[in-house]
Amino acid sequence: MEEKRYRLSGPAALSVPLADADRLLALGDGECALLYLYILRCGGALSLGAAARALGRTEEDLGAAAARLGRAGLLQEDERRLAPADELPEYRAEDIVRRSREDPAFRDLVSEAQRVLGHSLSGADLKTLFGVYDRLGMPAEVIMLVIHRCAETARRRYGEGRLPTMRAIEKEAYLWANREILTARQAEEYLEGLDRRDEAEDRLRALLQLRDRTPTPTERKYMDAWLAMGFGIEAMALAYDRTVVSTGKLSWAYMDRILRSWQEKGLHTPEEIEKGDSRAPARPAAGTVRRERVPAAGGDDLERLERLLGHKGRESAWKDGFWPGREPGWRRYAQETGRRRPGGGRRSTPGCRRSSGWTGPSGA
C-alpha cells in the first residue's frame, strides 16, 4: 500500500530553531509541543491565563507543561513582575489634582468611576485609582472596562445594589495587567470569554440548585475548576446524577473526583463518557421514560396475605409466619376479611392453634 504524504496547507512562515525542535521531539510530549508553538506564535511571551483561553486547557495543566519545558531548557520564567499594590509610591493629593487637570483621560476615568459606583471618590479611592492608572500603563478606557466588570460581578454574586470597593477594582486591574490585557481589543475578547463563562456558571448553579444563595468560597472553587476543565452542562449533569444516586446528596468532593477522573481520561462530552467510562450508565433513547418498580408499603405482609387468600395451605402460612397468633399479619387479615381471631380474640400460641385442627382462613 502506498504511503500517504501530507503537506501544510499554507506557507511555512514559523521558524523553530533546530536545537529546540530536537528537544521537543525528545520530550515526546504533545502538550509541551502545543504550548511551545503557542508561545512562539505570541512572540516568545507566555501568559497562562491567555494561553488557557486560547488553547482550551486549564492554567494548571499549562503550568505543568511550562515546567516541563523549563526543565528541558526551552522556557525560562520572566523575572519582570508588577509591584504589589502595597509597594506603590505614596501619591500626594496635589499630584492627583494636578494630573486630573492636565490629563483629560484621567479626568474622564474619575468621572466614570464615580458614575458607576454612585458616589464621589474619597481621597483614598482617588489615590488607589491613580496608582492603577499611573503604574499599570493601562489606557483609561481599559480601566473603565475593569470597573464595569467589577460592578457586574458584584451584582451577580451578591444581588442588586451591591457595588465593588476600589480595592476590588485595583485587584482586578492587576489581574488583567498580569495577563497582558492592555488594549481595548484584548479587553473585549477577554470580556466575551468571561460572559460565556458567566452563562455556564449560571447553568451550573441551576443544576446544583444554588440559585437562592451565594456559593461559599469552597463551592465556588469547585465550580471554577470544573468550568476550567472544559466540561459542558450535560457532562456535569451526568456527574451530578451519579453523585446524588451514590451518596443521596450533593457531595462536592465526590462529584469533583468523578469529573477529575473524566478529565484524566480525556472524556468531556456525554458521548465520550458513555464510551470511555465503563461505570457510566447508558442514556435512554430520546422520547423514552425509564420506569422504576416501586414496592408498596408493607409489601411483605401483603404478599403473605395474597398467598393465604390464594388457598396455598396451612403449612405455607405457618412457614411465612402469618398465623392468627402472630402480629401484624393477623391484624391485617382481620381488617381485610372482618374475621375475629379464633378463641374469642384471646392471643394463642401457634402451637395450640395448630394442634386444635383450625385450618386458617381457607377452612373457616
Describe this structure in words.
The structure is a single chain. The chain is an all-alpha fold. The protein folds into four domains: 18-71; 85-182, no CATH class; 214-276, no CATH class; 303-363, no CATH class. Helix content is 60%, strand content 0%. It has helices at residues 18-27, 30-41, 48-55, 59-71, 93-102, 104-117, 123-135, 140-158, 166-178, 184-207, 217-228, 233-247, 252-265, 270-276, 299-309, 314-320, 329-337, 350-355. Helix 8 (140-158) crosses helix 9. The longest helix is centred in the middle third of the chain and has 24 residues, at 184-207. It is flat, with a radius of gyration of 35 Å.
Our count of domains comes out at 4
| Poorly predicted parts | 288-299, 311-330, 341-364
Overall mean confidence score, pLDDT:
75
The number of strands is 0
Oligomeric state of shown chains: single chain
